[in-house]
């Protein structure tokens, strides 16, 4: 920038701070194209580049009274456009991260809900099948679900431990094919 250009720019900035529309129009006409090309290289989108340039000039106009530019106005405008770009990039990252986390939550939530529904349905089916079993078999099964040892079950029902094991084995065989997954789930822990 030559000395006369620097003086001219300082004069325009001074007039701009005072609210001179012609000074603003002159700054706009002088720097618009260079800013647009810079913004376009950043975003590779014509509309977005035009928006960045417009927002930079709107910012200059709105903050005209507070402007304290140490370097040239064009350098200040380039930084303003770059900050707009970085803010947009950060905003997109936040939105993308949120969308990813939300989708994960939905996927995980659907799995949990599906699993809970499946477990309730299996439990209801198990209760139906247990009701069909002979009384001693269902009693042994229910007591075993409560983690009561075979010796305590035998004592409570007045039968031998071997009978408890046999009844449990018969119960599991009867429920086996239908409830293989569920029985494993119940006794896996």
Automatic annotation (TrEMBL):
Residue intervals of the RNA polymerase sigma-70 region domain: 27-88
Stored Pfam families: Sigma70_r2 (PF04542), Sigma70_r4_2 (PF08281)
Residues annotated as domain RNA polymerase sigma factor 70 region 4 type: 125-175
InterPro entries: RNA_pol_sigma-70-like, RNA_pol_sigma-70_dom, RNA_pol_sigma70_r2, RNA_pol_sigma70_r4_t2, RNA_pol_sigma_r2, RNA_pol_sigma_r3/r4-like, WH-like_DNA-bd_sf
This protein's UniProt keywords: Sigma factor, Transcription, Transcription regulation
Family matches, as NCBIfam families: sigma70-ECF
Family: Belongs to the sigma-70 factor family. ECF subfamily.
Protein name as it appears in the record: RNA polymerase sigma factor
